[in-house]
Amino acid sequence: MGRGSTAIVAIAAATVGLGSGQADKPSPFDRPLQTTEHFMNVPAGPGATPSDASEMGLLSRFARVSSVPFGFESDEAAPRPSTASAVERRGVTASTLRAALDGFVAMDPRYRWKDVGGAFVVRTLTAWDDPNDALNQRVRDIHWRDLDVLSTFDRIGHLLYPADPREYFAGIRLQNSGNRPLNVNVADGTVLDVLNSAVRDDGELGWWVSYGGALERQRFSLTLGHYGNGPTLAWPQRPALPKP
Fold first, then answer.
1. 202 vs 200: CA distance, rounded Å
2. Residues 6 or more apart whose Cβ sits within 8 Å of residue 131
3. pLDDT score, position 94
4. Which end of the chain, C or N, has fewer beta carbons within 10 A?
């Protein structure tokens, strides 16, 4: 494909099941989307692969047009940084969120998506069950009430980096962040459960975890914001795993 060309993966919309002779109310994953064409930029040329940021942008678009909260953990084993090279558009044609997410994993089979209590979460096939993944680390007795996005970010950041003495975003207030206080409750679960609880409680939040390569200054990055657009912080090392 030349510069400026477009590749499309077309995925048929999922069929809504029928019950007792009447159509069931469709889940958010099966409602018609506001638009059916969804694109991201990838480096031009055969065999080119999208960056982590481009894939995050596409998933954020899915979330916005479906009004569904989400989370995305980029591939830890093979981070893909953004480039300044010429790009071409690559996209998914889908009329439901389920079809759009199926199209995403068809384009990048490293990933698997799940419906997690009404939010969609995209991670690599191995991350879901990897005991060494930072998001799979156990947490208990998380009962946070009436927080804003920044204070929620701060507490999640300190779950990942408990020895970090900083107060993230101290003195900063978000503009147009809404007035919905966040309540996060995870009695016994994982850091992933905490992130998902936060975005579900708000209803319009998205989280993103991305990784840097061994030679990069930033090795771990967390974003939490409106459909994934909001506070971001990076650390020079991966989160330390608890000793067995």
1. 5
2. none
3. 97
4. C
